[in-house]
Specification:
Number of helices: 4
Radius of gyration: 19 Å
Shape: flat
Helix content: 25-40%
Structural class: alpha+beta
Distance between the termini: 25 Å
Oligomer: single chain
């Protein structure tokens, strides 16, 4: 984990609550000589509202041709047309190996700010990728699938 010092923090940034899909502009404020706080400088907005205001750029849904090309390069992933999602199942030698894999995927997903739907039963992990904001598969799903595939090679 990197250490951030107060003099390295930006004056303005976006505060994101991924589970609630909400964003607000914020700034760092000193509460005392040793304590920092956050102050909102604007309203909380949904991702779509923030994109409409130009605060963030949302991912775009892949068109049929781009989706087919991307999925062809990821043969272990299956496309579920009804869900607009790509799915892959993994089998490991133990629960510990499966959970270790999930931990690595969680770190990749957090870094990308794009989180999978997934499940784990003992030595098996199922991952479903779709971009709810885009309304189907986006380049973010493809990028995360590639990164996940690198973990199991």
């Amino acid at each position: 984990m990197e250490t951030a010092y107060a003099d390295q923090l930006p004056d303005q940034f976006k505060l994101v609550l991924p589970l609630e899909r909400r964003i607000a502009p914020a700034r760092v404020v000193w509460r005392s000589d040793r304590e920092l706080g956050l102050a909102l400088t604007g309203p909380w907005r949904s991702y779509r509202e923030s994109a409409a205001a130009g605060d963030i750029q949302m991912a775009e849904k892949l068109n049929d041709e781009d989706r087919a090309t991307a999925l062809a390069a990821l043969p272990a992933w299956k496309y579920d047309e009804a869900a607009g999602a790509m799915i892959r199942e993994f089998k490991f030698s133990s629960f510990v190996d499966a959970f270790g894999f999930m931990t690595k995927v969680a770190l990749l997903a957090e870094r990308a700010n794009h989180h999978p739907d997934w499940s784990n039963v003992y030595d098996r992990v199922a991952i479903t990728l779709t971009d709810y904001e885009a309304g189907g598969l986006s380049e973010r799903d493809i990028d995360l699938a590639r990164a996940v595939d690198q973990l199991v090679r």
